[in-house]
Each structure stands twice: as C-alpha cells, then as structure tokens.
Amino acid sequence: MEREVDVIVIGGGPVGENAADRARAAGLEVVLVERELVGGECSYWACVPSKTLLRSAAALRAARRVDGAEQAVTGRLDVQAVLARRDYWVSDWSDQGGADWLESIGVGLERGHGRLDGVRRVVVERAGGEAVVYRARHAVIVATGSDPVIPPIDGLAEAAPWTSREATSVTEPPARLVVIGGGVTGVEMATAFAGFGTEVTVLARSGLLGTMEPFAGEAVAKGLRELGASVRLDAAVERVERTPSGEVVVTLDDGETITADEVLVATGRRPRSERLGLETVGLEPGDWVAVDDTMLATGATGNDAAPWLYAAGDLNHRALLTHQGKYQARAVGDLVAARAVGGPEQTAPWGAHVATADHTAVPQVVFAEPEAVSVGVTAAEAERAGHEVRIADVSFSSVSGAGILADGYEGQARLVVDAERNTVVGATFVGQDVAELLQSATIAIVGEVPIDRLWHAVPAFPTMSEVWLRLLEALGRPGSSDAAAPGDAGRADHSGARTDDAGSAA
C-alpha cells in the first residue's frame, strides 16, 4: 500500500523544516521524513551548541578588555556551567519540541530513513525494520545535509577521531586536543577548547580561513596564539595512532610527533546521498545534487517534463551554511506550492522563488577570537572575475565606538567595490563583536546600493557602524578629487579621538 501526499520532504533539519512549513502554509498535505532528531545537525551538533560553547569565554574576555569591569572579574570560567548551558540550548538532545511544532502546523512526521524509489516515490525504513511507501502528487524535496570528511590519513579512522559532533557534545574537555584543519569548524572548536583551558594544537596545510581575505586568517591565528593555542601552518599529517593507554600520537610529514588526548578532524564535508536512492532517478549516489536557482535537481528523471525533485541546503553544495539553506528552503517551498495550486511563478533573478543571493551575497560569521565575518567576494575573487576593483581598508582604531567597546580594540575592515557599477561586491570585518555589522554589508550588496547613496546612510555615533563612514572616506568623497582610483586600496588612518560635549567628532 502506498500513501499519497502532496509533498514529501526528506530531512528534518532547519532546511527541511522551512520547506515543509512553506508548502504546508499554502494548504498542501506534507510529510517530513527524519531518521535522527527533528532540528537536524545545526540544532544539536553544529551551529547552536558550538556557538553556545564559545559564548561564555568570549563574554569573559570582553569584560576583561574594559577597565572597571576587568577589576570585577575575579574568577575563572566555569566549564561545567558552560556545558550545562549548552545542554539547555540543545534541549538535552530531545526533539520533542520540534515534533510538537510540526504537529501544530499540520505537517506529518515519519521517523525513519527515507530514500527515493523512482519518480515521486519514497520508501521509509522505520527503526523496527518496517518499510512504508509514500508517493508525492507534486514534489519531493531532499534536504539531507552533509557529514564530516575523514581524510585518508594513515591510521586516522582507526584512531576514533572526533568530528564536530563529538566536539560540540563533549561532556569533559580533554587536557590536550589536536585539531586537523584550518577552516571554520577547526578554528571555532580550537577557540572554544582553548577557552576551556585545553592545550590546543591546530594543524593547517596552509593558512587559516582560506576562503576569506588573508588578513582574517592572520588575525585569527594571532588570536588563537594569544589564547595559548599552538597554530602550525603548512603542517601535513602523515599518520595518527591511538596508543593502548588511550593517547593519540599525530606524526607530521617531517617526522615530528604531537601527543594529545583527542584529535578533532575538521577538513571538509561530504553529502549525505549514498543511501538516498539517487540511482533510481538517474543521479549518482554519493554525489552532491546539482540544482538550478529554483533548487530543481538537474538531470533527474522526469524533471524536464514535470518538475518534481528538488534539493536544498548542504546537499546541493551551493553554500554549506544553515542560513543559506533556509533561504533556499523558503524559496523552494513557496515555488512547489505555487506550482501545485497553479499560482504565478517568480523565477526571474531576485524573484521570490529563486536563490539568487547564493551567487552574490553569502554572509558568513566565524565566531573565533577575534570574530571574522564576510559577505560577497574577496578582492582576489573580484579581480579574477574581471571586475574593475576599488578597495577600502580601515583599521577599527579610527572608530570611536570600537575604542569605547573595548580598551585597545584591534580590528580591520575592508570593502571591495566594483568600480564600473560603483557598488559594494564584498565586505570583510575582523574584530570583537563585528558579527552584527554583517547584515548592513549584505543589504548593500543585495540592494546594489551605489556608493554615492551609501554616504547618506549615516551611522549613529559612537557605534561600531561608524566604520562605514571611515570606509567611504577611504574610497573618497563622491565628486571630489580625493576619490580613490580603481585598483587602489584607500587606507584611512584616523585617530579615533574622543568627542566634545555636543557629540561631534573631535
């Protein structure tokens, strides 16, 4: 017996939840299939627990950077309290709240492993061994996410390494931790455990945060070292061994060995598509699922004649970030609903049913020490793409709000401007609490706001957002002779002086 519904969503993380919610809001009958916890990787083993683990030590460091508050800090970080707070935010790894929410909006929950079995057909293998079959009248949306990669290093798999899951669900921080990888996960977990007092060693084949501007990785490497971590760049791991005593011995390609209690692997991710049944619809199991801007799976059987299979989130490999996956999910959920009820389809660039921003404005925050955030392209990427580039680099020492936020504030900001269109195409901020500056840059890029118009977006004084004024000054006032020429890096060197009683810049 097959049960027929309008839409089947495979994967109950934030992406699947959002897609199901949008389709159900249009009146469609939706069933969501999840094999683990409703809420997925982000809620229980990634975004939420990792940022919770990072926050307490960051708050403590922030207090110690403000004279007067510093003197009031007399104790050390309470690690067990941090872990208890993490447990609260992951609901002690119970998804009852997520299941209750699905029920409240009328989405059916099927617990088990879902796989495709031909066009519009999904088989769900329940935990007890029973299999049930669903057929979708309109669409199947796959949102199964990704898993950490364990690289083929001699002995690594046998050494039972940590991945992000073990790191974020830790119950007792190890005394010594080796982190293999210099990307976001590696950097954030190194920051978290260094904050706990763990002796951390980071091994990166090149620099840190290689997809960002070089100064971001350099600042984070400096910050990790100041936390007591060892950061080894250009380090290649040749072998990993778990000794009978439980220690881990990591051997580098130059013969040096590092002994630790645990080793965390953070070297990339792979799609959860090996057991998804992709081969039954003409796609390759184990691969990322290629999609167009509407999230329609390209090359899937039957999709050309009557669109039915979509892939959102990590699985399509466009932007492995929860917020971008949710953005895709909202678009595809609304599109599936529009196609089901015969409504208008808004599939032109920047239409409601496409994920145009995946190509131009993907924001990312690295909650390291210091924070490093970016959106759009780097200067090098813009140049490779053929843009006529203008660059503005500013130190946060020129921003009064930064100096008030923290004594001796250190940080840097960069805007990358397409000189031909006179719009921002990339932005990077590095420093304490810069994450909240990112949305303004994202809006500037998505809205293609001309630089001349940005001069009229006046930042409040004295706030961190005043960095925007300094960046614009570095680019040059519109219509004046001090405007930076294309290819130049305008660098402001402001003193960040105090203000007079009227609040005007001194």
Automatic annotation (TrEMBL):
Source species taxonomy: Bacteria, Bacillati, Actinomycetota, Actinomycetes, Micrococcales
Gene3D superfamilies: 3.30.390.30, FAD/NAD(P)-binding domain
Entry protein name: Dihydrolipoamide dehydrogenase
GO MF terms held by the record: dihydrolipoyl dehydrogenase (NADH) activity; flavin adenine dinucleotide binding
Cofactor section: FAD
Compositionally biased tracts (Low complexity): 478-489
Entry keyword set: FAD, Flavoprotein, NAD, Nucleotide-binding, Oxidoreductase
Feature: compositional bias, Basic and acidic residues: 490-506
